[in-house]
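Exercise 7. Given the encoded structure of a 196-residue chain, write a plausible sequence.
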């Protein structure tokens, strides 16, 4: 199975953390049917992880911890969006991250072409952070959370075209369950918006 696809599939548990944190920290109302859809999506993630495999045991906890911290980051960005400019939200955390990591760096000289690749990664990441900050300014975190599922199609394509890895049946089934729950959550969000 494509490693990138599997890791991203596990990370699709982020809506659970999103919903939990948005309810606790942002006091957003999360309906029962959305909680149910997130639970179904998490079942899909477990199917994709193939419990019992060495990969599941070695990676799952690390990916879940990273997923929780990623969800917390987006929740904090949503809270900051009420008072701070989107550009500041995109830049300041990255500056703090670089400064915090400096003591741990074992600097090695890099070829010039690597500097160019790092610059591209930096621009793409900053652009993504800015777009997320803008989205969080105008929509509830619990509504935006399911959109993360769209990355599945990108990582499957990268695994296939870059590393020539194909989908395993359990990953495909799990992804189908996850995407189905995603569409249901989007349906609930639109239905609730019409009621209000």
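Solution.
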């Amino acid at each position: 199975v494509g490693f990138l696809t599997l890791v991203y599939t596990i990370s699709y548990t982020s809506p659970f953390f999103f919903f939990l944190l948005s309810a606790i920290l942002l006091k957003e109302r999360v309906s029962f049917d959305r909680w149910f859809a997130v639970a179904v999506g998490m079942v899909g993630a477990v199917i994709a992880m193939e419990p019992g495999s060495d990969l599941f045991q070695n990676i799952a906890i690390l990916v879940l911890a990273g997923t929780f911290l990623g969800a917390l980051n987006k929740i904090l960005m949503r809270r900051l969006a009420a008072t701070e400019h989107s550009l500041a939200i995109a830049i300041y955390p990255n500056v703090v991250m670089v400064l915090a990591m400096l003591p741990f760096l074992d600097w090695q000289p890099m070829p010039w072409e690597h500097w160019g690749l790092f610059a591209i990664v930096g621009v793409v990441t900053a652009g993504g952070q800015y777009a997320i900050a803008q989205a969080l300014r105008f929509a509830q975190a619990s509504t935006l959370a399911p959109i993360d599922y769209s990355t599945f199609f990108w990582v499957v394509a990268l695994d296939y075209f870059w590393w020539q890895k194909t989908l395993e049946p359990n990953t495909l089934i799990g992804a189908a369950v996850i995407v189905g729950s995603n569409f249901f959550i989007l349906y609930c969000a639109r239905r609730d918006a019409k009621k209000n």
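Remark. Residues 95 and 101 are 10 Å apart (CA to CA). Students should compare their own answers with the one above.
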